[in-house]
Amino acid sequence: QVQLVESGGGLVQAGDSLRLSCAASGRTFSMGWFRQAPGKEREFVTAAIWSGYVYYSDSVKGRFTISRDNAKNTVYLQMNNLKPEDTAVYYCAAGNKVLVFSSVDYDYWGQGTQVTVSS
User: Fold this and answer.
1) Given this model, what pLDDT does residue 98 score?
2) Cα-based distances in Å from 51 to 30, 44, 77
3) Whose CB has fewer CB within 10 Å in the chain, the N or C terminal residue?
4) Which pLDDT score is estimated for 57?
5) Contact between residue 30 and residue 105 where contact means Cβ atoms under 8 Å apart
6) 77 phi and psi, to 5 degrees?
7) DSSP per residue, 5-63
8) How far apart are CA 68 and CA 6, in angstroms?
9) Is residue 19 within 8 Å of residue 79, measured between CB atoms?
10) Which are the contacts of 36, defined by CB distance < 8 A and separation ≥ 6?
11) For the chain, which ranges sit under pLDDT 50?
């Protein structure tokens, strides 16, 4: 069983930046971030696999950057130029499947951290 501990998040204004961190208790093939806004389904944001490949949703490409420190089993999410529509609970996820874009591709989840962007 891998446990994930998230940190970061908070309340910012549009255009600001935030950095989320997620530390895992063990090594996994993929680590990523999902988000869920009120009344909406959880959606894929970004993922990084062990080899270094990264993936982004179209809505965050160019603004968000995922990075992974394999030695520390930690993944970071740098969010720049935040928009009100980025407001959501952000969840860290980790797993050992080849696919990374769906929540079913992950076995382990963090508790979630709130990101609120005011206009």
Assistant:
1) 85
2) 9, 20, 17
3) N
4) 97
5) yes
6) -130, 110
7) EEE--EEEETT--EEEEEEESS--SEEEEEEE-TTS--EEEEEEETTS-EEE-TTTTTT
8) 14
9) yes
10) 42, 43, 88, 89, 91, 112
11) none
